[in-house]
Amino acid sequence: MVKARVREAPLWALMLASVWLDVVFVPLYLTGIETIARAPGTQGIYAAAIIHANYTHSLGGAALLAAIFGWVGAMAWGRRTGLVLGLVVLSHWVLDVVVHRADLPLLPGNAGHFALLGFGLWRWPMAAAMVELALVIVGGWLYWRAARAVSLAAQRSERFATLTGALVLIGGVAVLAFDVTGVLG
Amino acid sequence: MAFILGTLFFVVVVGVIDARLPWPRPRQPGQRR
C-alpha cells in the first residue's frame, strides 16, 4: 500500500521495515529474553499466542527500532524515504495492538508496569484471517496499479508489472495460508 | 518457518524483481529537489 504512494521507496526496504520488529524479536526469542506462550483454550498455531516481547514490541522499543531503521533509510535514500520507512516499522506495532491479546507494554521491559495493550482480534481467528486477507488483496491491487502506471509512463510493457503484482498477491496469500494452517510450523 | 520464508521471498525475490520496474529513483541525501 505504501509503495503505491511513496514510489521512490525500495520495495525490499518497505517489506523489511514491515517485519523489522519480528526480525529483531527472533534472536531475543532464541536466547530466551522474549518468549511465546499459548493462549488458554486455543488450538493450532495461528492467532494462538500470547507474546511476551517486552522489548521489541513495547511502544517505546518499537519507536526506538523505528527511529534506527528510519535513520539508516534516511542515510541511504533521503529524509522522506527514511521517515516513511520509520513509520512503516511503527505501523507493525499499531496493527499488533489490534490483533494481539493484551500483551503489549508501553515501555521496554514493561517498566512502570502500565496496563498491557491489545484489542485481541486474534480471539476470533477467522475474522483476523479475513482482515489480513483483505489487506493482502487491497495492497496487492494498489501495488499492481502503481507498477502498471509507472511502466506505461516509461513506455514499457505492463506485463512485467503484472507479473510482479501477481507475485506480491500470491506470496501474501501463501504466507497467510501457511500461517493459518500451520503447514510450515 | 512461514515468517522466515515469507520475509526472504518478499525482501529478496520480490524486491529484486520490483527493482527492475521504472520506479522514480530515491532522492540522495544532500540532493536538491
Q: What descriptive keywords fit this protein?
A:
heterodimer; A: about 180 residues; mainly alpha; two-stranded antiparallel ribbon; B: about 35 residues
> Can you tell me the overall shape of chain A?
globular
- What's the count of strands of chain A? 2
Instruction: State the major sheet of chain B.
Output: none
- State the share of residues found in helices of chain A, binned by percent: 55-70%
Proportion of residues in extended strands of chain A: under 5%
Rg of chain A computed from alpha carbons, rounded to a whole number of angstroms: 18 Å
**Multimerization status:** heterodimer
Distinct helical segment count of chain A: 7
Strand content of chain B: under 5%
Q: SSE layout and pairings?
A:
The complex is a heterodimer of chains A (185) and B (33).
Chain A: H1 2-5, H2 11-18, H3 20-30, E1 35-38, E2 49-52, H4 59-77, H5 79-99, H6 125-153, H7 159-181
Antiparallel strand pairs in A: 1-2
Chain B: H1 2-18
Structure description:
The complex is a heterodimer of chains A (185) and B (33). With 185 residues, chain A is mainly α. Chain A has two domains: 1-123, no CATH class; 124-185. Chain A has helices spanning 2-5, 11-18, 20-30, 59-77, 79-99, 125-153, 159-181; strands at residues 35-38, 49-52. Chain A starts with a helix and ends with a helix. In chain A, 32% of the residues are buried. The model of chain A has no long low-confidence stretch (mean pLDDT 93). Chain B has 33 residues and is mainly α. Chain B is 52% helix and 0% strand. Chain B has one helix spanning 2-18. Chain B starts with a helix and ends in a 15-residue tail after the last helix. Classes of the chains: A mainly alpha (185), B mainly alpha (33).
